[in-house]
UniProtKB/TrEMBL annotation, chain A:
Similarity annotation: Belongs to the bacterial solute-binding protein 5 family.
Domain Solute-binding protein family: 71-428
Domain of life: Bacteria
Organism: Vreelandella nanhaiensis
Keywords noted in UniProt: Signal
Name of the featured protein: ABC transporter substrate-binding protein
GO-annotated biological processes: peptide transport
SUPFAM superfamilies according to UniProt: Periplasmic binding protein-like II
UniProtKB/TrEMBL annotation, chain B:
Pfam families: BPD_transp_1, OppC_N
Spans through the membrane: 12-34, 74-102, 123-147, 195-219, 240-261
The keyword Membrane appears for this protein: yes
PANTHER family for this protein: D,D-DIPEPTIDE TRANSPORT SYSTEM PERMEASE PROTEIN DDPC-RELATED (PTHR43386:SF1), OLIGOPEPTIDE TRANSPORT SYSTEM PERMEASE PROTEIN APPC (PTHR43386)
Name of this chain's protein: ABC transporter permease
Entry keywords, A to Z: Cell membrane, Membrane, Transmembrane, Transmembrane helix, Transport
InterPro entries per the UniProt record, alphabetical: BP-dependent_transpt_permease, MetI-like, MetI-like_sf, OppC_N
Organism: Vreelandella nanhaiensis
Length: 518, 277
């Protein structure tokens, strides 16, 4: 008797080969997409905001890329070795790489980018570089980073947007910010800068000399600038635009657009950033200073409802301080389910007297306003006396920076590793007035500080894991902030744009492998 | 002819009055018919009207009962309309009375001050005021009052100017009444009828202003008002027409009713004028 399983497998294998054949990439074609808002400039490393990253990530490259599981894969570095003590990282560079102006890319460019350019201009790279003792080019294609002590997330720091390789021969010894080449960025990426009609379109064209044989398939990518959200949705509907990067249309337009023929949606491509929405709770004063109150807030919020209704079912209800894409997440913690009864008990236990608590929505558009209304109602239903304060972006920044709030919405990037994106929210030495991005809630716990700091430089990973497990348990109990949602940022595209999102930064470098089945 | 008979002669005014009474009834009955907060998410989002019992007007983007919002919104709209008009009268009437009664330099100063407010577009000024003070019922009432008092001052001033040299005023002066007494007891009562007519129209304008502010997201985020409902629904108008339609109709009817009543009051209070018409 023939084994039915084996039959099924061979049938599946056959099906796989045929589809693989049918999906053989085609050359040519230009993709039209959106950049929103128009970026202030395109020199990555000098500017790191989202619109710059999404366009310039196709012009510039880093040493490494990251899979959707945040595993490093080669980009400009072909391979790398880590010494046993975790202090020496040796990168072996590709040998056939040229800048868009024809000059060869060498180890000197890496040293210049890291040691000079980023140290001067790039705060997030600087935070990593403080662990680096020296950067040396041992030959034309080998670079050695020596660290002062082991730093766990080091290999995760080489993403193109954060650790961009810039050409030494054009920038060395110049005033970086006023360099004439800033208007015509030169990188090593699959696309070259063509022209930029301000307020209208940024055009990139294929780099014929790209080092990956056959890539890119596309002849070019046009990034259109359309300031109005409604018009962007219409442009996609009528076919002018092939790809809508996440955040370029309002959430409520997404179901309508995604139901159109030949439209695909993906939530992938944000694993590296993993935007994580939180509710700041002022740990310093008022009812929110009481742990039981903060736990009550967690139980009172119907986060499933918010996910299903406000975010159209996209995103994930988080478990705790570490998002599901973060390394070392402890998924054995007891989730804070929607449980108004438990919330009322906790409030009773702490003797909450109905003191008014204000809530500050994030002024980023309709979805966030509605969300604040939903949370406000959730909290009222368990007996918390909430009042919403409407504000604009400036007011929001100022209130959080001055710690003048009780509850406030925000979202933060996680950058894959707890030491890069998570610890900053809870470390007490990261409490400083004036910024809405640090330890705004004012949480102070010596043990948490100790564990986070130890874990950042512990080696190997099993050591880190144990330390982070303990940290997560403490944070889960203390609820320094409310964990609202691991945001799902969907990308909409015509289904005949193939292989668009294939790494953890998604569209930021997606056109490298994309092709048009037309 | 009695006051009401004169009022009722204007059919439109009667219709307006009936609509207005219904809206007032809505506002009063809201807490009885819908004791739960209108912000409460009670059903599946986007239920169309009449599709489910208890939700005659459907539910909104978050599953809140539109009918409850509409009823509670009536209260907010009327409250803001009435209070802000009263505040505007409290500013406009004294300023206009003093300017009109004393004339001369005082008049000049007060009128230049009034013109200063009149030259700035109402709505723009209201937006700026609310944005500065942070949106809340109080700040909205104040902003609306601050942009709507100049016409009152103008009207009262004109009335006072025409009345201040009448015989009965001269007589009061001869008797030795103080200026304050003359203003309050002799002239002001005689200017009441145009003020009442103007005030009824101002309530309508105030409701519109509040709706516009809420529509732009400058409403008090803690109260459900009609303008807020439309503002929140405008982005989903292609999916759910009823979310903006019903509050829109409510605003239309209320403003229309107030205008009709205002006209009726004008007829009733100024019978000579209306007969000439």
């Amino acid at each position: 008797m023939r084994d039915p399983l084996a039959l099924a497998i061979s049938a599946a294998a056959l099906a796989f080969t045929t589809t693989a054949l049918a999906d053989d990439p085609k050359q040519g074609g230009t993709v039209n997409t959106i950049v929103q808002p128009e970026p202030p400039g395109l020199v990555l490393g000098m500017i790191q905001n989202a619109p710059t990253r999404v366009v310039a990530g196709n012009i510039y490259e880093g040493l490494l890329r990251y899979t959707t599981d945040l595993e490093p894969i080669p980009q400009l570095a072909e391979s790398w070795d880590v010494s046993d003590d975790g202090r020496t990282y040796t990168f072996h560079l590709r040998e056939n790489v040229a800048w868009h102006d024809g000059e060869p890319f060498t180890a000197d460019d890496v040293v210049f980018s890291a040691d000079v350019f980023h140290r001067e201009l790039n705060p997030s790279a600087r935070a990593v570089l403080q662990h680096v003792e020296s950067i040396e080019a041992t030959d034309e294609h080998t670079v050695v980073f020596t660290l002062t002590e082991p730093f766990g997330p080091f290999l995760l720091s080489f993403e193109a947007g954060t650790f961009t390789m810039v050409p030494e021969h054009l920038y060395a010894g110049t005033d970086f910010r006023n360099n004439e080449h800033n208007d015509h960025p030169i990188g090593t990426g699959p696309f070259k800068f063509a022209n930029w009609e301000r307020g209208t379109v940024i055009k990139l064209v294929k780099n014929d000399d790209y080092y990956e044989e056959g890539l890119p398939y596309l002849d070019g990518v046009n990034w259109h600038v359309i300031p109005d959200g409604g018009s962007r949705a219409v442009a996609f509907e009528n076919g002018t635009i092939d790809v809508l990067p996440s955040g370029t249309v309002e959430n409520f337009d997404i179901p309508r657009l995604s139901e159109m023929d030949n439209v695909c949606v993906t939530e992938e491509g944000h694993e590296y950033f993993s935007p994580y929405s939180m509710l700041w709770m002022n740990n310093r004063e008022g009812p929110t200073a009481d742990k039981r109150f903060r736990q009550a807030v967690m139980y009172a919020m119907d986060r499933e409802f918010a996910r299903n209704v406000l975010w159209n079912g996209l995103g994930k209800v988080p478990l705790s301080a570490f998002g599901s894409n973060a390394r070392f997440q402890d998924d054995t913690l007891e989730p804070y389910d929607y449980n108004p009864e438990r919330a009322r008990e906790l409030l009773e236990e702490m003797g909450y007297d109905g003191e008014e608590v204000t809530i500050l929505p994030l002024p980023y558009g309709e979805t966030w306003t509605r969300w604040a209304e939903a949370v406000q109602q959730n909290l009222r239903e368990v007996g918390i006396n909430v009042r919403t304060q409407a504000t604009d972006v400036g007011g929001w920044n100022q209130r959080l920076g001055d710690w003048d709030y009780d509850l406030a919405f925000t979202y933060l990037y996680q950058y894959g590793d707890p030491a890069l994106g998570i610890s900053r929210t809870y470390l007490s030495d990261n409490i400083a007035k004036g910024s809405p991005w640090n330890n705004v809630e004012g949480y102070e716990n010596a043990r948490v500080d100790e564990l986070f700091n130890e874990a950042a430089t512990a080696y190997p990973d099993s050591e880190r894991e144990a330390l982070y497990k303990e940290v997560q348990e403490i944070l889960h109990e203390d609820v320094p902030v409310g964990w609202l949602m691991e945001l799902g940022f969907p990308t909409l595209y015509r289904c005949d744009v193939k292989d668009l999102v294939n790494s953890s930064v998604g569209l930021n470098e997606g056109f490298r492998d994309a092709w048009l089945d037309r | 002819m009695s006051f009401f008979a004169r009022f009722a002669q204007n059919r439109g005014a009667l219709v307006g009055l009936i609509i207005l009474l219904m809206i007032i009834a809505m506002a009063i009955l809201a807490p009885l018919l819908f004791p739960e907060s209108p912000w409460r998410m009670v059903q599946r989002p986007f239920l169309p009207p009449l599709s489910q019992e208890g939700f005659p007007l459907g539910t909104d983007t978050m599953g809140r009962n539109v009918a409850a919002g509409l009823m509670h919104g009536a209260w907010v709209s009327l409250l803001i309309g009435l209070v802000s008009t009263s505040v505007a009268l409290l500013i406009g009437v004294p300023l206009g009375a003093i300017a009109g009664y004393y004339g001369g330099l005082i008049d000049d100063i007060l009128m230049r001050f009034t013109e200063f407010f009149q030259t700035i577009p109402n709505f723009a000024l209201a937006i700026v005021l609310v944005a500065i003070m942070q949106p809340s019922v109080t700040s909205i009432v104040l902003a609306i009052a601050l942009v709507s008092w100049p016409p009152v001052a103008r009207l009262v001033r004109a009335e006072f100017m025409s009345l201040r040299n009448r015989e009965y005023v001269e007589a009061a002066r001869l008797v030795g009444q103080t200026n304050t007494t003359i203003i309050l007891r002799q002239i002001l009562p005689n200017t009441l009828s145009p003020i009442i007519v103007l005030a009824s129209l101002m309530v309508a304008t105030a409701i519109l202003l509040e709706s516009s502010l809420s529509f732009l997201g400058l409403g008090d985020p803690n109260v459900m008002s009609w303008g807020y409902m439309i503002g929140a629904a405008r982005t989903v108008i292609r999916q759910a027409w009823w979310l903006s339609f019903f509050p829109g109709v409510a605003i239309l009817l209320t403003v229309l009713a107030l205008n009709l009543v205002g006209e009726g009051l004008d007829d009733a209070l100024n019978p000579k004028l209306s007969r000439e018409r």
